[in-house]
Amino acid sequence: MKIWYLLLLVFFFLLSTTPNNLIHRLKQWISEFSRLSEPGYSWKIFLKTSWLKLRPKLMVVAFIIAGSNLTYAQSNGQENDIRDILESMAENLPEDYDMSELIDVMTKYRKHPINLNRTSPEELKTFIFLSPLQISNFFSYVKENGQFVDVLELQSIAGFDAKTVQSLLPFVTLTNTSEYEQITLKNVFRDSEHDFMMRFAQNLQKQKGFTDLPGNRYLGSPEKFQARYRYNYSTILSAAITLDKDAGEKFGGKPFDFYSGNLALFKLGKLKKLILGDYTLQFGQGLTLWSGFSFGKGPDVTSVAKKDLGLRPYNSTNEYSFFRGASATINLFKNIDITPFLSFRNLDASQKKIGGQGDLVQSTINQTGLHRTPSEIKNKNVLSQRIYGAVVQYAQNEFAIGAIAYRSNYGNSFITQTAAYDRYSFTGKSLTNLGLFYNYTYKNLYLYGEGAKGLGGGFAYVNGVLISLSKSFSAALTYRNYAKDYHSFFNQAVSESSEAINEKGLYAGLNFNPNKHFAFSFYGDYFRFPWLKYRVDEPSKGYEILGQAVYMPSKGFKALVRFKTERKQQNTDLDVPVNFLDNVIRTGYRAEINWQLNKSWSFQNRAELSQFKKGNTKGEFGYLIYQDVDYSPMFSKLTGNIRLAYFNTASYNSRIYAYEDDVLYSFSFGMYSGKGYRTYLNLKYNVAKRLNIWLRYGLFIYKDVETVGTYLDEIKGNKKSELKMQLRYQF
Questions:
Q1: What crossing angle do the helices spanning 100-111 and 76-90 adopt, rounded to 10°?
Q2: Bridge partner residues of 700 (DSSP)
Q3: How far apart are alpha carbons 78 and 89 in whole angstroms?
Q4: Which of these, 435, 512, 518, 507, lies nearest to 472 by C-alpha position?
Q5: How does pLDDT run across 362-382, given as a tens digit for each residue?
């Protein structure tokens, strides 16, 4: 029963405070919580102390609860559907990937399913489990057979296997009424949905940056705090506000370091979209204009072809990858759309003075969004960015083509960095980007590509094809060629590097699904870097190979094995007069079993091995084993999951990343490096139908170390733990 009392206290605590004293109260509560390890300080004393502090506020809270709907409902199914889809993709994402936008989209369509008879390619592209070829086949089917009579007709579409149809069914419907035929001012207020979320997180051990150090240190408080509000009226009107404070940032007169918001309107005749505030633009294959995050290479080989979503509201907490201003998508003629956009922002940059006039210049833009130390605060919002441009698209039947043109102006000039590998980096105060992209479906072929050029720099292009060889086989082939002096500030095309520049590559992949129980995938990617790179002092090359097999005899059991190896080249670590390149080989092996005991209990077991070898040095070896247990009974107010893991890696080079469950709208990718244990516990309590709270505690225990972390993040001792609390109220 102790955990029930603890959860209720967390909930009452969050509701009984204001933003001005929230952090102070949280610090007091965590201080009391940490005293549980002291002799003579028991759970009974802790609960009594917390109760006395909260009791004056409980009358107000009681009225809040009484006003809400106390009918308990089972909402875990919706979240589990979304989590299952994201889980299959999460392990292939960057470490800092913010998936809140993805889960927002899936949640919206779970509540308001897409009308199959009125949908568009852009809507279907939001589903990460649909390939571009499947989407094209969908509209070819509609063209030949007319409107859907039953959603189960999806099974008749080429490339729509049982797994795809099962994933899609919760998000689609068939209706004959347009949403705008029902809209009134009264409905906008009466039938709208409001979603408020507040999250707090803090490392429980004190980091070096929070001590009274001379010079560089964290000037703010150690907690992370986030609040967000979402308004939706069906799928045609939305508004959002996001507030965020990172650990180490000040929580003073301006309580949040990052503010974001937007107002968006959809499907209003010729005006397909209109967004005021923060937004993202995703077009073509990501070579000319793509903000936000994007998928890259993964076990589903069709993911190498990007699904551009065009103009979208921005609802993430990443403080760099978005536009701020206004944009709209307008239908000019039957098959032609135009998306003009305008953005005004100030960015972080490290600047210095040069020349007799003392002009400010910078070589790079700071993208972390962190403002904790004196230098980070000094660099905040010092570089103005002004962007304007447009995208024109033509689409008819199986063919689509688009053109992009925009100009970026900056308040101060970029200069070339001193390193040799940066010789071809962008210089100047303005940049004009031009791009042309296309896709075409011919029978079982989906052809796609994009060419791009930054004026004054080189040319880049990517072309590929997806092929449906049969009901069981699908293949992908992609060639890319990015010049060493290609310049774009919004470039996220498929590549081996973090930026799609200075690279040539050929990718080939194959999916094989002989029946509903087995799935096999394989890809190989060969790449070359014609110019120098960081820690690579001459042109280099490499390859990446992945193979995976999945066995699913039933819905309650899944077994997976995977092999992945990658070879690149890097400067030798030997002390020599002239650097030469050594081969760097990373190899990983994974075996995983997911099984469901009953409707309440499910388990995941994973064993993963990693190998690292550079040149002629002795290879490194690492491994990770873990057990996940999930408890999600139907109609239960309390659900949760726990992980118990042991890891042993020789060094950071043989580290292993693993996806971790987290509170709603938050996802983690644990880095397992060194030797030790990892555990975390997630709990969710449904206080009422529309009111939920989450509690997460995570702990690393490292063996044979005296400190954890480096520089300002260093912690004395061998433990690193984090406490996270979240409240969500829908009304």
A1: 140
A2: 678, 720
A3: 18
A4: 512
A5: 888 999 899 999 999 999 999
Cβ atoms within 10 A of the Cβ of 583, count? 15
What tens digit of pLDDT does each residue of 167-220 get? 888 888 887 555 555 666 667 777 788 999 999 999 999 999 999 888 889 999
Amino acid, single-letter form, for residue 609: L
d(CA 557, CA 552): 6
Question: Average pLDDT in the 602-608 region?
Answer: 96
Only one residue has tokens 């999806």, namely: 154
- The C-alpha atoms of residue 237 and residue 341 are separated, in whole angstroms, by 19
Q: What mean pLDDT do residues 249-277 have? A: 90
At 84, which amino acid appears? Answer: D
**How many other β-carbons are positioned within 10 Å of the β-carbon of residue 244?**
21
Q: b or e along 424-448 (b: 16 or more beta carbons within 10 Å of the residue's beta carbon)? A: bbbbeeebebbbbbbbbbeeeebbb
Q: Which two tokens stand for residue 192?
A: 């709208």
pTM of the model: 0.84
Q: How many CB atoms lie within 10 A of CB 714?
A: 13
Among candidate residues 437, 463, 337, the one with its CA nearest the CA of residue 396: 337
Q: Which amino acid type is present at position 209?
A: G
User: For the stretch 253-287, what's the b/e string if a residue is b when 16 or more beta carbons lie within 10 angstroms of its beta carbon?
Assistant: eeebbbebbbebbbbeeeebbbbbbbbbbbbbbbb
